[in-house]
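re: that complex we talked abt at group meeting.

here r the seqs, copy pasted straight from the sheet so there may be weird spacing, ignore it
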Amino acid sequence: MSDNIIAIDNLVKEFPRVKAVDDISFTINRGEIFGFLGPNGAGKTTTIKMLLTLIQPTSGLINIFGVNAITQPDMVRQIAGYVPQDVSVDGDLTGYENILMYAKLYNLPKSLREQRIKETLEYLEIQDRASEMVNTYSGGMMRRLEIAQALINQPQVLFLDEPSIGLDPGARRLMWDLIKQLRSEFKATILINTHDMVEADTLCDRIGIMDRGKLVTVGEPSVLKSTVGGDILSITSQSAQCLNKLEELGYQPLSDPSDHTLDLLVTNGERLIPHLLESLNSSGIEVEMVSLKKPTLDEVFLKYTGTRMGERDTWTAARRSRRNLRKLNH
Amino acid sequence: MDSSSEIASESTETKSLNLGYYFSNIITLVEFDLRKLKHDTLQVWVRLVQPVLWLAIFGTVMANFKVTPAGYSDYRQFLAPGVLAQSVMFVAIFYGINIVWERDLGQLNKLISTPASRSAIILGKTLSAGIRGIFQAAAILVLAIILRIDISFNPLHVLGIIFITILFGMCFSSLSICLASVFRTRERMMGIGQAITMPLFFASNAIYPISMMPGWVKYVAIINPLTYIVDAIRALMITSDFSQFPLDVAVIIGATALLVTLASWRFRKMVL
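got the structure back, here u go
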C-alpha cells in the first residue's frame, strides 16, 4: 500500500464534444519510471495535466503521496515538477534567470537558493552557459534547462511530457541516461508521456498503453511483449505450394499473403528457421527471403487496439488535434 | 503513509506565510519581466517613434490652426498627456498577445504548475505591463522637455503620473488578457489590438476636448476609461486643476479592479 504513491481511480475528463480520458485507473510505485505510451490524442497529456492539478477532472479520484489532488491542489504542486511537451523556457532571459525565477516561485529560502541553483546547473551541465541568453541554446540544452527548472524544488514526482521530442538521436540517448540518473540520485518517481516506442521500451519500468482516452493495458515492457505470443517470421516465396506446406506443418499465417509473404507467429524463431527451410526445400518450394522480427511495443499496441500506432497520426497532426481540443474546450 | 503526514504538517506551517508568498510571487513575475526589458531595451525606443510623430509633427502642425483649448499655452501642451496615454495604452493592449504567445509556448502551463496562485500570476503579469508603461511615460516626459513643452515637475505630480500609469497599464493589459481568452490566436489579437486602440483613442479627450465631439461620440467618451486617465494625467502634468481628479481616480481604480478580476477568471479558461 505504501508503495503506491500515486493512485488513480476511474478518472474521466470530458470536453464538450470529446471524452479525452475515459475512465482510467492505475497505480504508480515509489521510485518507478512509469510511461504512458500512445498515439497523439490518446489522452496522455490530459491525464498528466489532471495529475498536476492544471485541469479539473470530470470525475474520479487522484491520490498523490496520500494527498487528494482534487481538493488540495496546492500540496501537489509543491511536491511535483513538470516539464511540458513544448519548449517552455524563456528565450529572453539567461539560463540562470530561468532557474532563479522558478526557485523564487517555489519559495525556496534565500539561504538555500544560490547553492541549489549552482548544483542544479552543474548537474545538468549548463553552468558554462548559464549567463547567456537561452535563445542561443541548442534544443538539448533547452530541455536540460527545463529539467533543471523542474528539479529546483527537489520534487518527489516528476512529470515529463514527451521528454525527447525534437531532439537528435545523440541528445535523445543522453536524455534517457539523465532521466534514469534522476531516478537513482534524487529518488524521484518519474512519469513520462511518450509516443516513441523505443523510448518507452528502454526507459520505463512499466508502461500503460493509452488509446482514445482508454488505458488498454499496463505492465512491464518485456511482459507486454511476451503477451504477443512470440516472434514474427516472414517467409517470401513465389511458390503457390508454400502456404499449403506451412499449414501441413501446423502453422497458421497471421494475415492474407501480401506480395507472396506469409507472416507466422513462432517461438524461438532463430532455431526454427533452418528446420523450416529444410522441410520447404525438400518439398521443392523455393524460398526467396526470410526475416525474423522480435515483437516490439508496436505489436503490443496492435494486439490491444487492433491498429498499429504509426497508422494513427503524426506529430503535426497531433498538434492540430490538440489545438482543436483547446478550441472545443472553449 | 508518513510522507503524507510530513507534507500535511509542512503545509499548515506555511499557511501563515501565504499572504507574503502571494505578494512575493507577484514581485517575482514583475522582476523577471523587467529583466527581460533590461536584456532588450530597444523595444522602449522603437515604441517612441509614434509619440514623436504625434507630438513633433501632428502637434506642431495643429498648433498652427490656432485650435488650442483655453488654458493651454499651445496645442502640443494639450496633446502631450494624450500622447503619453496612447503610448502606455499600446504597451498594455499588446501585452495580451504576449500571454497568448506564452501559452502557445507552454510557459503558462509550467507557470501554473507551480504553487503560485492564478490570481497572483495575473496580478504579476498586469503589474508588469504597468511598470513597462512607466518607462514609456518617462520617455515621453523627456521628449516633452526636449520639445520645450511646459510641464509640471512637482515631485508629487510626477509620483501621481507614475501611480496612474501603473493602474492604467494593469487596466488595459487585463482587458487585453480578457480579449486574448476569447480570440485565442496571436494573429487575431494583432487585429483586435489595432481595432480597439484607435477607437478608444479617438473617442477620448486625448487629442481634442470632449466639448468638440459630435453628440454620440461624447457618450462613448464618457464611458471610455481612457478619458478619465487622460484627464488625470493632464491635471498632474499640465493644469494642476484637480476638480475632476477624485472622479478620475475612482473610475480608474474601479475599472482596473473590475478588469483584473475578470482577467483572473478568464485566465482559468484560457490555459488547457
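couple things i noticed - Chain A touches chain B at residues 2, 5, 49, 52-55, 65-67, 74-75, 77-80, 82-90, 92-94, 97, 101-102, 104-107, 133, 146, 149, 156, 325-327, 329-330 (CB under 8 Å). The longest helix of chain A spans residues 169-186.
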